[in-house]
Design goal:
Blueprint (H helix, E strand, L loop, with lengths): L1 H59 L2 H15 L1 H10 L2 H31 L7 H29 L2 H28 L5 H26 L7
Length: 225
């Protein structure tokens, strides 16, 4: 009886062991695929929004819109390091991707601030105000949808980089509303409103930079190598 039971137990143990190992591999691959899917979807949404805003910027020449456009384009490109990190299935790469996100936000703030100051020095009133307001609506919708995609996936996958990028996109949605405010202010005759709102957007982006940095720095992934 002992000889009969032992092979059976051995087979059972092997099956349990292999099933367990397969489950771990499956979870890792599943997380990688879900992360890449979320990053790809948000990239597509933000790229479409940035492209639409770029077309409108050519017509309006609004520095507030330019600040929002630069930021949205940079936000879309943060999908690249995040996608690579999920493809590698590396907690360390994911952390570095989070830092790349923070760097991209900071650079976009610097560029937007420079353009706003230049426009204050050399004033130029934007035109096609209805189109300018529409660009703000496009930016708001694109960022809000991207934020939902990223935040949901970030919480589900316990990814600090995705959570930070989701918070970033959500704040950007409200920043895009400032473009609508710029169109309204210029329409009622406040000509300096456009570059001033561009500066205000820059300050908001800097605040987002600090918040995202804090999120990425303090997070310790359970599988960190």
């Amino acid at each position: 009886m002992h000889e009969h039971a032992h092979p059976h137990d051995h087979v059972h143990d092997n099956e349990h062991h292999h099933g367990h190992s397969h489950g771990l591999v499956h979870d890792s691959v599943k997380r990688s695929r879900e992360g890449i899917r979320a990053v790809s979807m948000s990239l597509a949404v933000l790229a479409a929004a940035a492209a639409a805003q770029a077309v409108i910027f050519v017509a309006t020449d609004s520095v507030a819109l330019l600040a929002d456009l630069i930021h949205n384009a940079g936000d879309a490109l943060t999908a690249l390091p995040l996608g690579i990190a999920f493809l590698l299935r590396s907690a360390r790469a994911e952390r570095w991707a989070g830092l790349a996100v923070v760097a991209a936000i900071f650079v976009s703030a610097c560029v937007a601030g420079f353009e706003a100051v230049q426009r204050l020095i050399t004033p130029q009133t934007p035109s096609h105000l209805a189109a300018l307001a529409l660009a703000g609506v496009v930016g708001f919708a694109g960022n809000w949808l991207a934020a939902r995609i990223r935040s949901s996936a970030g919480r589900r996958l316990d990814s600090a980089a995705l959570v930070a990028d989701g918070d970033h996109a959500r704040a950007d949605a409200y920043v895009s509303l400032a473009v609508i405010a710029s169109a309204a202010a210029v329409w009622v005759g406040v000509r300096a409103a456009d570059p001033l709102i561009g500066l205000a957007i820059t300050l908001v982006i800097l605040r987002i930079t600090w918040h995202s940095w804090s999120t990425v720095r303090s997070h310790q992934p359970p599988s960190a190598a």
